[in-house]
Specification:
Length: 276
């Protein structure tokens, strides 16, 4: 049975790169189905891509994941395929794939993409998505190539890793950081709702929220409408705590970006953030 290929990249949709990669796949086998997860990953942002894949892998059909965010293309980083219970993940060995692997139970085997029969001859070394990743993904998904035929088996311990930063929990507060900002301006943190509940917080509670050097009173809401107005926190669709602004952009209001430090503790402040 042929496998579905799910494709994510930082290519954008303006220069034809996505179409070329999909064209290579369907030249190998015109019957292969390709799902586009996203091609709007910020350019060269491995962290963002890793988080996106970690979330998406839980909802896309099992088969082949083709993921390319590859600032080291053409360098000594390896093109790899990783076997998991979910299926096979193909991309660069730069940490992009490891969170998705962990989400579905971890890597079982990994192989270098070395079989010359499935590498498109090329002059430069700047488009491995076209010349290496996509033909291997298509060959495997169509049943023309077995995983063990890809190339040398790799030591799993040697694969590059991206790790989500850990929170710092004390008796009175939880310290974390912003992992990413979505296009609505919601700021997802590495703080989980379970960590808040362990501090006896619950939905509806008023909290003290600090983002970098800004402190404000906030509320833990069950949706993106804060009944008290202004900034709130919510358990987002990926199961993490996000900071939001009702009908607005929290990232702009708070000057919040990837890596911004966040602290949540009990109580409210007498001074609210000026939202005017």
């Amino acid at each position: 049975m042929k496998k579905i290929i799910s494709f994510a990249s930082d290519f954008g949709n303006s220069d034809g790169s996505v179409g070329v990669v999909k064209g290579v796949i369907n030249r190998v086998d015109p019957d292969l189905k390709i799902i586009d997860i996203s091609h709007g990953i910020p350019a060269q942002n491995i962290k963002y891509g890793s988080l996106l894949l970690m979330r998406a892998i839980q909802y896309i059909p099992q088969g082949v994941l083709l993921a390319v965010v590859d600032p080291g293309v053409g360098s000594d980083r390896k093109p790899i395929a990783i076997k998991t219970d979910w299926g096979v993940m193909i991309g660069p060995d730069n940490g992009l794939l490891n969170l998705a692997c962990a989400t579905v139970g971890g890597a079982q085997q990994a192989f270098a993409l070395e079989n010359e029969n499935w590498i498109i001859p090329h002059e430069g070394e700047t488009f491995h998505a076209r010349d290496i990743f996509s033909p291997f993904a298509a060959a495997y998904a169509s049943g023309q190539l077995q995983l063990e035929e890809f190339g040398q088996e790799l030591n799993l311990e040697d694969l590059k890793q991206y790790l989500i930063p850990l929170t710092d929990i004390t008796e009175k507060e939880i310290k974390g950081e912003v992992l990413y900002v979505d296009h609505f301006g919601n700021c997802q943190t590495n703080i989980s709702p379970e960590e808040l509940k362990e501090k006896n917080f619950k939905v509806g509670d008023t909290l003290s929220l600090r983002v970098e050097n800004q402190e404000l009173t906030s509320k833990w809401c069950n949706n993106y409408q804060n009944t008290t107005g202004g900034v709130g926190i919510v358990t987002d669709s990926w199961g993490m705590i996000s900071i939001f602004l009702s009908n607005g952009d929290a990232s702009k209001l708070l000057n919040c970006k990837d890596g911004s430090k966040v602290t949540i503790k009990a109580g409210s402040l007498t001074k609210r953030l000026n939202l005017k």
